[in-house]
Write a structure and sequence with these properties.
The chain is of the alpha+beta class. The chain is about 30% helix and about 30% strand.
């Protein structure tokens, strides 16, 4: 009888200690693998990358005032189901405002990246752009993301000559992103 009570106390103590181990994971608590947290983490990383890129652009504009003011362009961007439509694509490098209107079927994430990769070769991981790739440099994203259906927003950046991809996609579905390639020429081309 004493052996039975002793083993019951030991098992109870082990279970009690296991329950008090400090782990707060429950079936209803988000974990690091929860898609919302992965997306938030990825969005924060993109935002930090864009902030650094903007600071670099501002430094260039201060060091070389013509860098940011070579051209002032306004480009109207219309997001439609499965495509991005620009009102014009002959754009010179400089300060560019993308006036974006969402006429697609739902909310859209919008991202401008600088890359020499074709749009179908942009690396992704778990439905987000792979920012560890040196071939991809995030330049701008919406301040209020995702943009609701029929929403609008303006993204303005000082951009140097080069190749860019503008992407619009339903959150977590970057593989199905609508994209358009933009090549910015030096002023005077």
């Amino acid at each position: 009888m004493k052996a039975h009570i002793l083993s019951t106390l030991m098992i109870s103590s082990i279970l009690l200690l296991a329950g008090c181990s400090g782990s707060n994971n429950s079936p209803n608590q988000p974990t690091a693998n929860t898609p919302e947290i992965l997306h938030k983490s990825s969005a924060e990383t993109v935002a930090k990358e864009i902030q650094v890129a903007s600071q670099e652009e501002n430094k260039l504009a201060i060091q070389n005032p013509t860098h940011a003011t070579e051209s002032n362009a306004n480009v109207k961007v219309r997001l439609e189901p499965g495509e991005i439509i620009l009102d014009h694509s002959d754009i010179e490098a400089g300060t560019i405002s993308f006036n974006i209107e969402n006429e697609s079927t739902g909310p859209q994430e919008v991202l401008l990246i600088k890359t020499d990769l074709p749009r179908d070769r942009i690396p992704t991981i778990n439905g987000e752009i792979d920012l560890s790739s040196s071939a991809v440099k995030p330049i701008a994203q919406l301040a209020n993301s995702p943009m609701p259906r029929y929403g609008s927003e303006i993204i303005t950046r000082a951009l140097e000559p080069g190749n860019y991809v503008l992407m619009a996609y339903t959150p977590f579905e970057i593989e199905a992103a609508a994209t358009t390639e933009i090549t910015l020429q030096s002023s005077g081309f």
